Structure formats: structure tokens, C-alpha cells
Amino acid sequence: MSTTRFDLVDIIRIIERRRRFILIVTAVAMALGLVFHLVRKKKYEAKAAFFVSNPVYSDRSNIFAGADSRYMDYFGDEDDIDRVIALSESDSIIAQIIVSTGYDKANNVNFDDAGQRNELKQKFKKALDIKRTEYKLMEVYFTDPNPELAATVANQTVNVLERSYRGYYNSRKEGLYNSIKSKMVEVDSSINALTDTLARLREVSGIYDIISPNRQNLVSSHIQGNGKDAGRYMELIQNFEATKDMLVTDKAKYVSLLNQYSTGTDPDGMRLLHSITVARPPVDTAGPSVFVILAACFFIGLFFSVLFVLLTNYYSEVILVKE
User: Fold this and answer.
1) Residues 153, 88: Cα–Cα separation, whole Å
2) Strands 273-277, 44-52: parallel, antiparallel or unpaired by DSSP?
3) Nearest-CA neighbor of 288 among 123, 43, 27?
4) Of 263, 242, 312, nearest to 62 (Cα)?
5) Which long-range contacts does 194-203 make (Cβ < 8 Å, 24+ apart)?
6) Distance of alpha carbon 10 from its chain centroid, rounded?
7) Separation CA 164–CA 184 (nearest Å)
8) Tens digit of pLDDT for each residue in 100-133?
9) What is the 3-state secondary structure (H, E, C) of the chain?
10) 208 CB-side CA count, 13 A
11) For residue range 14-44, what is the model confidence (pLDDT) as tens digits?
């Protein structure tokens, strides 16, 4: 029983014999690739890059540390980068970018319509790509048929992320600031009430000496009053003065804390995302060039045409052997 021989020499002979078919298929594949390149919708990719700063560096515990301050890295770590990436994927951030850049109007979408809004958000997420590099650098890529819009969205993405990321930390400070300020209002009210009480007690008793135990170096050794209940009034004044002195001391601390927590919370304060590359309207289209497409189509057409020729010839010889 004879067997089918199919070695390298036979393969070369088959390819040489069917070279016209192979060349035609390869040429057709390249022509299809050229047509695809010409008819496809051109898109442009804009790029912006930035570093994430260490948010703890702008905290009051570091700003007002004084001699106790320790060295702190200016750049954020991997956790800070993860938080920025998580923000970029949130619906609220995406909605802000879409509205502020006019991306919805450019796509003729009514952003108030829930269905159209969701479709546009999905399209936006596909066009937006945020990457991190091995040097802790973050890069924002946005692809769109309009090069100016692509650059605008890339830059605005960095701006919105910066405001949102910094706003989170500032909101913690503002929450503490408002809490302390509310407490200071209560202390002010108590101080005013104690001041009125002490004024009436001194007028009634005639005791105008400072007898607060909190002021140890100012306590009078001889206290005079004008009434028979001078001892009782002296004790009352001493108690109210001690309480008032503590409240005044607390108020001074609150004022200092308010100044500390309000530091760096202004809109033009310490930025937490530092841009190093501002996106410009791209000139070249995104995706592979025409030479890359033609080369890929050439090798694909050549490979499959040769494979087709070899397989058809092999099975033809197998059938002849069986017959």
C-alpha cells in the first residue's frame, strides 16, 4: 500500500505551481486592507500626563508640625493612584466631564434623557483610557473623531479629577472646621453669660479683685466687699471666674484650630494632581498606519492562500491514493 509523500520539496513545488493564485489572493487581501483604511472613520487620540501628589503633605499635622516634622515623600503612592483611577470610573466624574466639555452636544445627545445618557456614558468610557506607568506617572488618553474635542476632554479629565480628589480631603477639613466653629459659638455664648453674671455679682458684692484660682499669680491676698455675704459672693465669683477662664482658654485654642483647618482649602490652594503634559489636538490619526495595515494584510493573505493551496493539494493526493 502506497503512502502520500508530502515533504519540503513537494511544498515548494506546489507553491511555485500555484503562485498565481497565491499572488492574487494576497493582492486582494491588501486591496481590502487599503479600502478598509480609506473608508474607516478617522479618530484622533489626545494624551495628557500628570503626577499624583501626596495628600498628607498638605495636612495640618504636617504643615504646622514645626520642629517635629518628618520627611514626607512629595509624590503619592500606589494607593493614591488607585483612588484617582477609582474616581475616574465613577458616574459623577464622567457626567461632569461630559457636560463641562460639551461632549453630549458634540454627539447630539440629550443628556437629560436617561437612555441616551447611559449610552453616551458607555461610549465615553470606551474612548477614555487612564494608565499608570512604572514611574508612578498617570496618563490620560481620549479618542474621538474631533481632534480639538479629544484634547479638550483629556485636559478637562485631569482638571475634574484634581478638583474632586482635592475636594474630598478639603471636605474632611471643612467638616472639622464647621464642627469647631459651631462649638466656639457655644463657648462664646457661655462666656457672655458668665461675663454678665460676674458683672452683676461684683456690683452687688463690691468685690472687684481677681480671685480666679486659674490665675495663681494674680490672686489678691486681701479681698474687700461691701456686704454681709462677702464670703458667699467671693466663692461664687471665684467659681464663675474659674469657669470663664477655662472657656476663654478653650476659645483661643479653637481660633488657632480654625486657622489651621482653613489653611490650604481655598480653590487655588495646594493642587494634588500636577500636570506635566497638556493634551494638544493630535495631528495623526489613532490606530495603525496604512503601511502597517498593508503589511499585515500581505502576510495574512500570503499565509492563508499558501495554507489553502497546501491543504487542497494534500487532500487531493489522499483521495487518489485511496482510489
Assistant:
1) 13
2) antiparallel
3) 43
4) 263
5) 194/240, 194/243, 194/244, 194/247, 195/244, 197/240, 198/237, 198/240, 198/241, 198/244, 201/233, 201/236, 201/237, 201/240, 202/237
6) 62
7) 29
8) 999 989 888 888 888 888 999 999 999 999 998 8
9) CCCCCCCHHHHHHHHHHCHHHHHHHHHHHHHHHHHHHHHCCCCEEEEEEEEEECHHHHCHHHHCCHHHCCCCCCECCHHHHHHHHHHHCCHHHHHHHHHHHCHHHHCCCCCCCHHHHHHHHHHHHHHEEEEECCCCEEEEEEEECCHHHHHHHHHHHHHHHHHHHHHHHHHHHHHHHHHHHHHHHHHHHHHHHHHHHHHHHHHHHCCCCCCCCCCHHHCCCCCCCCCCCHHHHHHHHHHHHHHHHHHHHHHHHHHHHHHHHCCCCCCCCCCCEEEEECCCCCCCCCCCCHHHHHHHHHHHHHHHHHHHHHHHHHHHHHHHHHC
10) 3
11) 788 888 888 888 899 888 888 887 777 888 8
**Closest by Cα among 143, 48, 49 to 103:** 143
For residue 1, what pLDDT band results from cuts at 50, 70 and 90? very low
As given in the structure block, the three cell numbers for residue 193 are 453669660
Widest CA span in the chain: 141
Nearest by Cα to 273 from 192, 163, 140, 113? 163
The answer to whether 211 and 231 have CB atoms below 8 angstroms apart is no
Distance of CA 174 to the CA centre of its chain: 20
Letter for the amino acid at 60? R
0.90 cut: is pTM over it?
A: no
Give bridge partners of residue 128 from the DSSP assignment.
142
Nearest residue to 300 (alpha-carbon basis) of 37, 25, 35: 25
Residue 301 near residue 31 (C-beta atoms within 8 A): no
Instruction: Name residue 275's amino acid.
Output: S
* Residue 230 near residue 205, CB atoms below 8 Å: yes
| Cα distance between the two ends of the chain | 11
Sheet strands side by side (includes 273-277): 128-132, 137-144, 44-52, 273-277
